[in-house]
Amino acid sequence: PRQWDDGSEPLVAEIMGLPPSRTFVLHDGEAHLLGCSRSLIPPPNLICLAVGSGVGHGISDSLGAVVDPSIPHGERSHQLNGVPLSGAAYKGIWKSWLEQPGGHADQIQEVIEKPFANMNKPWRMPWVSLVLGRRGMELAEAAHGCPRPLSLAEADAPAALAMDGADASFGNGSAAAADPHEPAARAYSEQWLHFLHTQLVPQFCGATRRHRIERLCFAGGVTDHNWPVMRDVLFHPGTDMLKQTSQ
């Protein structure tokens, strides 16, 4: 990742007009870890999952230092089933959503047929970034008949209420309407729980792993805007312990 160079293409540094000896290419998960380390040292044995258009990740070693994926043992520590986590095959549980009432077949078909990462039929061979990134949320929204948040402010409003512990009510004392996006966020979060238990934990937390993972955190826009629901689905109330998956 320090350079993109197959012998015929220029270095990233040359493209950007930067000095090659001081130019590095990082995954967004690693960038989140490095950014946080300016304020505090990341906890040891941590994986940071950055969820946006796709899924990036970075990991820390037993001392809290970011593991370099450009060296052989660091590269292996970032892999799932022998390939980078973001591109690893993952079927998910999204097909069960299509059987739920309330979805809109035309919207579901539109999401499924939309190209992703230069693939015209991406859902025929699903992988981590497709299923667990923003496109996975879009499919959950279509399958559960949920509107997509119209703006970042609207997406942030339920999170702000939940994080502040506020009693959501209107001026006349009546209870606020339920979040219409919650069914999609809950289904999407259950898919994440399934992934953690069936893929990430068995491989990244094994005793023989050079950089064994003991902690995880989430970053990125998709999790930021859906964190109250994700937290409720992923963790036991009042703890940081993962729930068991029902799938």
Structure description:
By secondary structure, the chain is mainly alpha-helical. Helices cover 38% and strands 8% of the residues. It has 9 helices and 5 strands; from the N terminus they run H-H-E-E-H-E-E-H-H-H-H-H-E-H. The chain has helices at residues 12-16, 28-36, 72-77, 105-113, 128-132, 134-143, 152-164, 182-204, 221-234; strands at residues 46-51, 55-59, 79-80, 83-84, 215-219. A hairpin with a 2-residue loop joins strand 3 and strand 4 (83-84). Helix 4 packs antiparallel against helix 6 (134-143), helix 6 packs across helix 8 (182-204) and helix 7 runs parallel beside helix 9. The longest helix has 23 residues, at 182-204. It is globular. The protein starts with 11 loop residues before the first helix and ends in a 13-residue tail after the last helix. Mean pLDDT is 82; it is low at 1-7 and 155-176.
- The number of helical runs is 9
Helix content: 25-40%
Structural class: mainly alpha
Strand order of the largest sheet: 2-1-5
- The separation of the N and C termini measures 35 Å
Largest sheet: 3 strands, mixed
Task: Point out poorly predicted stretches.
Answer: 1-7, 155-176
Q: Let me know the average pLDDT.
A: 82
**Roughly what fraction of the amino acids lie in strands?**
5-15%
Please tally the β strands and state the result.
5
3D shape: globular
Q: Please write the string of helix (H) and strand (E) elements.
A: HHEEHEEHHHHHEH
Radius of gyration: 20 Å
